[in-house]
From TrEMBL:
The keyword Transferase applies. NCBIfam families: ECA_wecE (TIGR02379), PRK11706.1 (NF008687). It is an enzyme of class 2 (transferase). It comes from the Bacteria. Belongs to the DegT/DnrJ/EryC1 family. Its EC number is 2.6.1.59. Keywords: Aminotransferase, Pyridoxal phosphate, Transferase. Pfam families: DegT_DnrJ_EryC1. This is dTDP-4-amino-4,6-dideoxygalactose transaminase.
């Protein structure tokens, strides 16, 4: 039996919806399914304006354009993240300034942000790792004090909350992902959440190739024209139709993922007490969405042994980010603030376990095999 690390879940109505989009005679972007996805996201997150995009990456690129970043401007962010967090800003000529993460949540260490601010700093881009919120009150206060914008990379954060507020609804702008590895999916897909009302109109323009096409379709202008820079960031109705079906089942998906997460967490408790590993930390004022279940093992050698042995048993487990500050492009385009000790250590020690809807039937097996491997002492 092989158990993959991820298996994209179909709720059932995706293909019906795609057939409906075709019957509607509207396959390009911003048709009825896209509008219903926007309304759903706005209602569920409380954001001012939600706009579907091709990916979270595309939404982050839109955010970087919206902030009018100039070459040499600095954006503070963690190094322990996906490349798109940094790439979106580097494409504008901006410089990612990497700061260390907290050893508990693995999110940006808010206590290091203020020291990293220079006269060139324009924004802070936070990443809610594993769908667990960053310390947003502190981060928003620092941003307000220094006149900085905050972008939330909430790729992993749909349905998670911080002090009762949806992730993605707190910063000036936020990006969600519906990539097939995320909780709610459309293959490739994402959304920009615009919380700052002053940025809504320009966000629509940037998404429509720099034209005021959205205003034209609402009858607010009598012809549409090129008014700003932009690109094609809107997905087809086929993607929105698929996503709309997933949205209908999103609560059920989250509930099933949470049940799997909770079982892993209970199972790993005695292993943690026994000093074999460390479990994820979720602060009391954060509700997470069971995006990921990870373990922090003792060291790189132990993690490598674990991954190899799990693979040999047919179970897909994977490590996560190579820190951006140690990657070739990160070194060329970014700089670090201080020593990124927790980033490096986490990158070496973290392993993610399979977590997908349908894993319920195999989870006992995964835990048994993992426990057997973890219980074996390393070869001398
Ligand atoms: C998945 C992910 C992205 C990229 O999402 P895409 O939709 O594939 O572009 C960006 N940032 C983080 C933190 C992610 O986990």
């Amino acid at each position: 039996m092989t158990i993959p690390f991820n298996r994209p879940y179909l709720v059932g109505r995706e293909l019906d919806n795609i057939a409906k989009a075709h019957a509607n005679g509207h396959l390009s972007g911003d048709g009825a399914f896209t509008r219903s996805c926007h309304a759903w996201l706005e209602q569920r997150t409380g954001t001012r304006k939600a706009l579907l995009t091709h990916s979270c990456t595309a939404a982050l690129e839109m955010a970087a354009i919206l902030l009018d970043l100039q070459p040499g401007d600095e954006v503070i962010m963690p190094s322990f993240t996906f490349v798109s967090t940094a790439n979106a800003f580097v494409l504008r000529g901006a410089i990612p300034v990497f700061v260390d993460i907290r050893p508990d949540t693995l999110n940006i260490d808010e206590s290091l942000i203020e020291q990293a601010i220079t006269p060139g700093t324009r924004a802070i881009c936070v990443v809610h790792y594993a769908g667990v919120a960053c310390e947003m009150d502190t981060i928003m206060a620092i941003a307000a004090k220094h006149g900085l914008k905050v972008i939330e990379d909430a790729a992993q954060g749909i349905f998670s909350t911080y002090k009762g507020r949806a992730l993605g609804s707190i910063g000036n702008l936020a990006a969600l992902s519906f990539h097939e590895t995320k909780n709610v999916i459309s293959g490739e897909g994402g959304a920009l959440l615009v919380n700052d009302p002053a940025l809504v109109e320009r966000a629509e323009i940037i998404r429509e190739k720099g034209t005021n096409r959205s205003k034209f379709f609402r009858g607010q202008v009598d012809k549409y024209t090129w008014v700003d820079i932009g690109s094609s960031y809107l997905p087809s109705e086929l993607i929105a139709a698929f996503l709309a079906a997933q949205f209908e089942a999103a609560d059920a998906i989250t509930a099933r993922r949470l049940a799997i997460w909770d079982r892993y967490h209970d199972w790993a408790a005695p292993l943690e007490s026994g000093g074999l590993l460390r479990r994820p930390t979720v602060p009391v004022d954060c509700i997470h969405n069971a995006h990921m279940y990870y373990l922090l093992l003792g060291d790189l050698a132990g993690r490598t042994r674990f991954i190899e042995a799990m693979k040999a048993s047919g179970i897909g487990v994977v490590f996560h980010y190579i820190p951006l500050h140690s990657s070739p492009a990160g070194q060329r385009y970014g700089r670090t603030h201080g020593v990124l000790h927790h980033t490096d250590a986490t990158s070496d020690r973290l392993v993610r376990l399979p977590l997908w809807v349908g894993l319920e039937d195999h989870q006992d097996h995964v835990m048994q095999v993992a426990q057997d491997i973890l219980g074996q002492s390393p070869e001398p």
